[in-house]
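User: Sequence in, structure out. Go.
Assistant: Echoing your sequence, followed by the structure tokens.
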Amino acid sequence: MIAIIPARATSKRLPNKNFKQFFGRAIIDWALNEALKSEIFDRVVISTDTQEIPKSDAFDVYVRKNPTYEQTVDDVVKEVVDHYKADDYCVIYPTAYAVTAEHLLKGYGKFSFGMLNGEYKLDNGGFYYKGDLFLQGYEMPMVDINTMEDFIKAKLHAMTLTCGRFK
């Protein structure tokens, strides 16, 4: 099982939004650290269109071969899945600041113990897949970030969360 965090740097509406500072660190770091902390993934992969993400022993950085703005998340994920030859994977949005290891573990538990019955609706955050079949979303409150105003709303929202991470 791999985790894929698709982190495009070339957003037209809010350039580099995945790397903007959010409570003292890049917003992507919140989701990345929780994916690593969950210890359920054989590999955590940041898929990106930039060479500027430093390499790490804790996670992989996959720089897409021919990135274009028109690529969808599905296109990006397919490229990573094909590269790593992954059958089972989880997609985590880089701006899913509210995701916790517990969210990931809960979704993974349902996924791995076959407690899934087809397709589940997702509010925001991420998905579990087996092959091409979408199996489970983990639900959590969050703000979709496309503009600087959305970024400010996300910060305000984060301060209302009971996890205590955002102060």
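User: And one key feature?
Assistant: The chain has four helices and eight strands.
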